[in-house]
């Protein structure tokens, strides 16, 4: 069986499963949060630029179902795969391009991310188009003004998608300088691209000007992390990456960086991949890391990984090693797919891998049935608040932590005298019932147990609470807060 038929077969199966999961799974915390962006349409938002909100606002014109709000990210992910295949084929040949696609659809974490709207979804497409337009500029020696204009639009779209899109601007400058050397600064197109990119990101600047620059201060504070570097935290991030993307991509990726560091065809891919991978490796040492933050950098590495695998198949030892790594990766991917397709597998209480997805729609329905006119919903933290704010909308949701965030902008902070429904959510640590003491009076109203077979997955308690007394003022992200880190 040819590699092309294998690729098309697995791609078809992957697409069908993605559509199935997009139809059947409830929202994650991030998906609900960015769906709320679309509901509260704005120039920008507290923790991210506005692209995800703008895109979701388009979907909301037609429907507010989970599947409808996943259509645009599915389309964007499909376009990203097409651009990735085109670029890999042009640089390294059709077999490498086919294996690149197989690597993409074999990664455990990429069984989930492509059908959810998160900032990486439009950023990945912008990043791949960034490489495409740079290659056009290189081929045309910078003489085509439209190429520079497109470059500005693509960089602007990246800046509207996620703040780490700045790494694409840095990589772009490096690639252009290596191409043109000192002549770069005499290229009118360079300045036009910069002006267009700046115009594109003006909504972010405009919103921040009217909100005390809180997004930038938050990102500085968020990136600063803990005051000291932790080797253990950095190692945990690498282990997480190993599991999230699979051992084949992780190990051969490291090998590809070494083997292709002097390869001219690989240079542009490494220039775009390494800043992202290095940045988040450093941030992980300060306690700031999530598995999907490196997604764009890993995708930039996929054609290089495919090239190394294909060029090493003549060695029996290397071939066996690659087969072993691929088998382990596929096993992890199979486990993910089984859990997504058939989540009714019993685990220990509160240990189900999909526990975080379950029960939020049902408990939100309970809340709306208990609520009176003018009630608030009180929730301990933002990730829980996202699902309830989405499924119980338009009820105001107030988060009872000390951090100032997007919910404080949307619904206001909890104030002394506020009343409403308090939601407590149990995990393996139990309920945070000390929050009841923040009100003058609380009365138990309802509970909801979410089980799979005989195991608890989620457990919620609802209280009607009167007269919030507070625990002190929320701390907005300020220069002083940043400097205190």
Automatic annotation (TrEMBL):
A Pfam cross-reference name: PMT_2
Positions of the Glycosyltransferase RgtA/B/C/D-like domain: 47-207
Keywords tagged on the record: Cell membrane, Glycosyltransferase, Membrane, Transferase, Transmembrane, Transmembrane helix
Annotated transmembrane regions: 67-87, 99-118, 148-178, 190-209, 229-256, 268-285, 291-310, 322-342
GO terms of biological process kind: lipopolysaccharide biosynthetic process
Keyword Glycosyltransferase belongs to the record: yes
GO molecular function: pentosyltransferase activity
GO cellular component, one term: plasma membrane
Main location: membrane
Domain of life: Bacteria
Entry protein name: Glycosyltransferase RgtA/B/C/D-like domain-containing protein
Organism: Oleispira antarctica RB-8
